[in-house]
Amino acid sequence: MSTKIVVRSGVGRIHRYVYDKRRPGGRSVAMRGSCVVMAVDGELDLAGLPELCAALDSIPEHGCRAVIVDFRTTRFVGIRAAIALGEFKTKLAERGVDLRLVSGHAEVDRVLDVVGVRALFCYYASLDDALGR
């Protein structure tokens, strides 16, 4: 299995691919209007944390009002990744960007609760809700 990260800004413009054959699942980032959507597939553990941080660090400085991390197909989120999401919530808020999470799995929400960052995020049950549609 491999992990694939696709970073996009605007529809169809692919900037880079990163493959890691050690990990199942994948991640992709795409710009949708003034929102960046990042889908996380599979497991987000310590091995995938640098890729998550790199993707969140690559969020455009201008024109982005929200970053949505879509965990609907994520089976596992590690404690370090949950802590990093809380840190990025604060970091992006300083730039006027709202970090939003779409979940659907009690396992993901439980990890966010355990590390104390779940309260930082509004709950979105669907991508459309997070996008404000």
Q: Can you describe this structure?
A:
This is Anti-anti-sigma factor. Pfam families: STAS. It comes from Nocardia amikacinitolerans. The chain has a single domain, classed as STAS domain (Transcription Regulator spoIIAA). The radius of gyration is 14 Å and the shape is globular. Helix 1 (49-57) packs parallel to helix 2 (79-94). It has 133 residues and is of the alpha/beta class. The chain contains 4 helices and 8 strands. The N and C termini lie far apart (34 Å). Strand 4, helix 1 and strand 5 form a beta-alpha-beta unit. The longest helix is centred in the middle third of the chain and has 16 residues, at 79-94. Strands 1, 2, 3, 4, 5, 6, 7 and 8 form an 8-stranded mixed β-sheet that branches.
Quick rundown:
It is built from 4 helices and 8 strands; from the N terminus they run ββββαββαβαβα.
Overall pLDDT metric:
75
CATH architect. name = 2-Layer Sandwich
Number of helices: 4
- Total E-strand runs: 8
Based on Cα principal axes, name the global outline.
Answer: globular
CATH superfamily membership: STAS domain
Termini Cα gap? 34 Å
Helix content: 25-40%
Low-pLDDT segments, ≥5 res: 1-25
How many domains in all? 1
- The proportion of residues in beta strands is 35-45%
Largest sheet: 8 strands, mixed
Helix/strand-derived category reads alpha/beta
What would the CATH topology be?
Transcription Regulator spoIIAA
* CATH classification class: Alpha Beta
- For the CA atoms, what is the radius of gyration? 14 Å
InterPro entries: STAS_dom, STAS_dom_sf
Organism: Nocardia amikacinitolerans
Domain STAS: 36-133
Protein name: Anti-anti-sigma factor
